[in-house]
Amino acid sequence: MAAITKVSPLAPAGFPDLPAIDGVRFATVEAGVRYQGRTDVMLAVLDPGTSVAGVFTRSATRAAPVLDCQDKIGGSSDGPAAILVNSGNANAFTGHYGQTSVAEVTQAVSTATGVAVERVFTSSTGVIGEPLPHDRIVAQLEALKAGLSRHAIEDAARAIMTTDTFPKGSSVQVEIDGKTVSIAGIAKGSGMIAPDMATMLVYIFTDARVEQTALQALLGAQTDRTFNCITVDSDTSTSDSLLLCATGASGVDATDNSAFAEALEGVMLDLAQQVVRDGEGATKFVEIRVTGAASDTDAKVHGLAIANSPLVKTAIAGEDPNWGRIVMAIGKSGAAADRDLLSISFGDILVAEKGWVSPDYREDDAAAYMKGQDLVIAVDLGLGEGKSTVWTCDLTHGYIEINADYRS
């Protein structure tokens, strides 16, 4: 895989200062899974009593680590837990060898850390269809154990990157019953991003105490409003996962707490939008707001039809206010629409209303707006109260260059 050295123009100024989460420690190593000269494996070890919830890709060809994690989610939370992630190789479409690799890695983590195999969760990301050289990972377990630190979450974010141009992190602290609860998360994702949970790797940690079934329900609901509302290229990954871990170290019970739920959703949305901002070759971050649909479901269908359209995305890349392509995407989505009720805006510029170009619309105004990096496309269907917002990026030559060279 060719090295990616140019940071996305949409990247934040730097990695945020994330608080250390009591009850979790991190370590990274350079195992040489595929990359040379960079870390490519991260280990997180969590204290006994940590609740672990997860959501995963719905791909019919999902990878061996995903299947293993799905089998383990919902088990006992009594003992410690561990998460091991490698980049460079997805361990997907590798048959029985893939299952063997997962078994070897999870047993090695268990032996090194004392965590029961049933509480070791693994993820792999990278090239599909090549056997995972798990022996290289196993050989580094003692080094990983020795390097565990409460303050190494940024290192973990860097170790899980593939075609990402910047590490992604987010955090928040919230007051519950007069005590401070911390939430911090990291993510990787740049291409093969389409909402069908999960389409990326995401790990979120909190020192709040939340019972596992409640944590799982909360994660599922908030995923639909965050990670399932983004798309880079309409492709759903075989490998990706979101794990949410509540260590309980703060002693604060956040089960069914609205302030905690709101804070968690903020972290999830921030990470989701950072993934879009690091879309392969992206130069524009696009928010698509759909209102007036027959239902919220229809609104999301329309939003994703616009967000996933290559014609819309290339027009955005070319800074062309070609609103006819928005009309096209709505028409093909399959959700309810009426041509004669449709309104479209680019930012504050009303482009079309009631199925026809606005009499006040000036192409030069829209063309100037399209030169910005952060864009809003608003569509009102005029049919009902349904609404949804999704986020995407443009489609440029850079996307082709990255993916044409992905395995070299």
From TrEMBL:
SUPFAM superfamilies: DmpA/ArgJ-like. This is Arginine biosynthesis bifunctional protein ArgJ. Keywords: Acyltransferase, Amino-acid biosynthesis, Arginine biosynthesis, Autocatalytic cleavage, Cytoplasm, Multifunctional enzyme, Transferase. The record marks 198-199 as: Cleavage. The keyword Amino-acid biosynthesis applies. The active site is at 199 (nucleophile). It comes from the Bacteria. One of its GO terms (biological process) is L-arginine biosynthetic process. Its EC number is 2.3.1.35, 2.3.1.1. Substrate binds at residues 162, 188, 199, 280, 403, 408. Catalyzes two activities which are involved in the cyclic version of arginine biosynthesis: the synthesis of N-acetylglutamate from glutamate and acetyl-CoA as the acetyl donor, and of ornithine by transacetylation between N(2)-acetylornithine and glutamate. Heterotetramer of two alpha and two beta chains. The lineage of its organism: Bacteria, Pseudomonadati, Pseudomonadota, Alphaproteobacteria, Rhodobacterales. Pathway: Amino-acid biosynthesis; L-arginine biosynthesis; N(2)-acetyl-L-ornithine from L-glutamate: step 1/4; Amino-acid biosynthesis; L-arginine biosynthesis; L-ornithine and N-acetyl-L-glutamate from L-glutamate and N(2)-acetyl-L-ornithine (cyclic): step 1/1. It is found in: Cytoplasm. Gene3D superfamilies: ArgJ beta chain, C-terminal domain (3.10.20.340), L-amino peptidase D-ALA esterase/amidase (3.60.70.12).
